Known about the structure:
heterodimer, A: 519 residues, alpha+beta, 3 domains, 11 helices, 24 strands, B: 345 residues, mainly alpha, 8 helices, flat
Amino acid sequence: MSVQELEREQAPKKASFGAVAWLRWVWRTLTSMKTALILLFLLALGSVPGSLVPQRSVEPDKVARIYEQSPALAEWYDRFQLFEVFSSTWFAAVYLLLFTSLIGCIIPRTATYVRELRRKPPAAPRHPSRLPHSATFESELTTEEVAGRLRKLRFRVVTGDGWVSAEKGYLRETGNLFFHIALLGILLAIGAGSLFGYRGNVLVVEGDGFANTVAAYDRFMPGSQVSAESLEPFSFQLSEFKVAYQVTGDKRGQALDYSAHLKVNDTPGAPARDFELKVNEPLEVNGTQTYLIGNGYAPVFRVTDGKGQVAFDGAVPCLIEQKTTMTSGCVVKVPDAQPSQLGFLLQFLPTSVPLTDGDHASAFPGELNPEVKVLGAFSGDLGMNSGKPQSVYELAEPEVMKKLKPLVMGTSVPKPLAVGQSLDLPGGVGKLEFTGVKEWITLQTNYDPGRWPALVFAATAVVAIALSLMIRRRRVFVRIAQGKAEVGGLTRTEGSAAGFAEEFTEIVQVLSAGEKDVR
Amino acid sequence: MSAEQLAELSDLFVVAAVLLYVVAMVGFAIELAFGRSRPGRAATARRVEIKQPVAVGAAAGGDTVAVSDEVSAGPADASPEEPAVAGETPPGAPERAGQDDRTMRVAVRTGTVALGLAWLGMIANLTAIATRGLAVERWPWGNMYEFVVAICFAAVAAFLGTQIRTNVRFLGAFVMLAAALGLGLAVKVFYTAAGPVVPALDSYWIAIHVSAAIISSGLLTLAGVSGVLYLVRGDGMSRLPSRAELEKVAHRAIVFAFPLWTFAVIAGALWADRAWGRYWGWDPKEVWSFITWVAYAAYLHAKVTAGWRGRAATIVQLVAFGCLLFNLIGVNIFIDGLHSYADVD
């Protein structure tokens, strides 16, 4: 049965009143090709805002910015779930309807297909030469011999009194059905992945470690069926992180390679193994992948307070301000400093060069001449005990900042500090030492049980769609009478008649060849 | 040869390709303008591609074969070298007809020359890609410039490849125009000096994912050009082939390109799974390749839906082509995303 016939059969008929009739009408309308087409358009159209409006799951910071800059617009966006288009109810409505329509199409077509598979090719018409492709030649062959030759060409053959009819290309519909079923499979795999999988982000500084537990993540996004105990219990330590940069030419400063050396323990008791984590080469531990996502600098500082005690000593991950030179902004908070808390706003320059106006800037992203510019040093209550959530990349909230006492700012800023140099704060309230440079990396850990099923379904879909579009259904009929063979052929697939003409010529050649020449 | 020299050579070959495409375009245009016109309705009947009436019987010891070939006299069958078949010559005085005949023959010859130039242009285009690849020692489609150059090559190759089997010379002028414009855009707007790519692109997946995207884009460009011609062409006499034929060219290109595009998207997902930690994350490029895929799926469905065939299906196809172009170029320029390593300033 062709698509058109199927469609005609399924076309909405005049419904009489009554729940059953009405339901039948809804089902028929929903599963009609026209509805499917409209739903496809809606699906495409509905995806567009997903690329124009920032999505919460992809760019949460941009969403936050819209809320800050134009709250009214953000509210309207939110009302229509435009910040999460692909998990919105209206998008789900479209694809669920589409898949329902798809199921409504697959089921009857599968039934038809199974029937067609069992059915034999129809009897040959009285005059095969009236078919779109035909040939006549003298032949001594019997119907059985013709049938045999056609079978060799992998036709399904039926013979009758003086006629042979043959058909092939059933894989077309097989491909079609498998393709659509595979699409359903992909949807289910994605669904399973989002229920039973999780994703987490974490920042790790050189020398530090990470253990795969919910608490260790900076951001953890679990599926609704994920429990804290189900996380794969691996851990690793970041021994070293290296970046290779292009040093000459137009692309000077472009990163060429990132590599993080890890010591991985697959399970808590297992011996550590070395692993080199790279972009495009994730770490895999029992189906859980860890990816290298980002990197930056974490200069190491030691802060001595007014009482001469070391109040802070450690690496401070800095936010990248300029990607091409890796100029980074750092915040050092010292809540333990006595007599009052200390805070520093710093700028890290991996390759510091003096500018003509006496200022310094970074000229290269690699760590060739690392220096730290002190932008400001403050004393006073940093407000860290207020119970409000704090950002490690911000010294304090604006209202708290106003109350702090600036120690070093603006014109009093000294020359940048090189490694080993220190800055004595005025009034003897403390000292900031720049003791070394480490690097940080951001990692994403991902567990998605739907990955492999999705891949299998996707691969099936590709193969099936290729079969479905490339193969044509074709029939060949032969009538033999009085030493003459009349051959007719037709293809039931639109748009591929041209290719069939060549195949038909070959079939005629095989049928008309003498005994010895048969392949 | 040093990397710099190879890179320079590559740039020169791109310019050569543009020039050859432009000249070929003029040649094809002349053929179109002065060639014979064809009726609009499918009076062309069914094209039978049997080149010569098969004389198989000769070899088969006495059996004679006569492949019935009643429709082969259809005008579309006549190869361009043959003078116009009777009945198609525009009505006119006999002496004028003779002159027309000569003009037509010149036009056809010009078209043949254009075809040769198009081949040369394609070779220049390919050489440009190869030398670029040698200069940078990686797959030469790591940024927008290289990508567009490769797509232009793929479109021309799709056209010339089709031309080997089926006569689609009427598309020549338009494909050449598209390729010349594409290369011009690449050189003027997207140009990026030869150099290394960011580590995320340094993967064998670039060979698989981007190549599939390039080839399918080339085929879909061919379909897009046919679609535009379909809409431009009326039902009357025209120098363009009938609408049915234009539709067939477009449909065949899409039938090949759609599975390939599906593969390109899935290969992209596999690569994303290696590089970004998820196989699908609704990055703008992913969104638009999905939209493009859905739009072409809609076209394939429209082709078999009553009331949607022909004009409506062609419009759907062109909308899908618009999505494809926006995805290939627009997304990298206008929208920020993970694919924004186009190096476009």
